[in-house]
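Chapter review: from sequence to fold.
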Amino acid sequence: MGKKLKALAGNLADNQFAHTVKGSAQQIWLAGLGAFAKAQEEGGKVFDVLVKEGATVQARTRKMTDEKLVSIAGKAAGTWDRLEQAFEDRVARSLGSLGVPSKKDLDKLTKRVEDLTTVVQSLKSAKGAPKATGKTTTKPIARKPAIKKPVAKPAAPKTAA
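The token string follows.
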């Protein structure tokens, strides 16, 4: 019977150990569920905080990007204007070397023609010139007769002697 008591005592010790392990496992499981629930509660809050921070960072980044874009666009416009001016100067020099008058030359010439037109009109009115009736007759211009050059006659063929 001693063996039976020892076996029963061993089984009892094993049962207590199993019961302790089972209780510990239950507590670990409940702790995990509690942590999960806490993470869900806090996770929603953390998520909302992260969304707000992300929106703030995005706004800051967009503002900085817009400022840089304006700065770069200004520099590019200045560079483009200088390039355009250099091109216009080269074209003007090339046209000038070909004898094509510049806009300034044409403006001066136009002003001079306007001044001369004014002078001619004032001279006409001062002389009391009759106004044109609308019919203008042009006289044919006599031309000089063309001078004819004498045509050289071919030499007579030589006869054989």
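Two observations follow directly from the output. The two ends are 181 Å apart (CA to CA). The chain has two helices and no strands.
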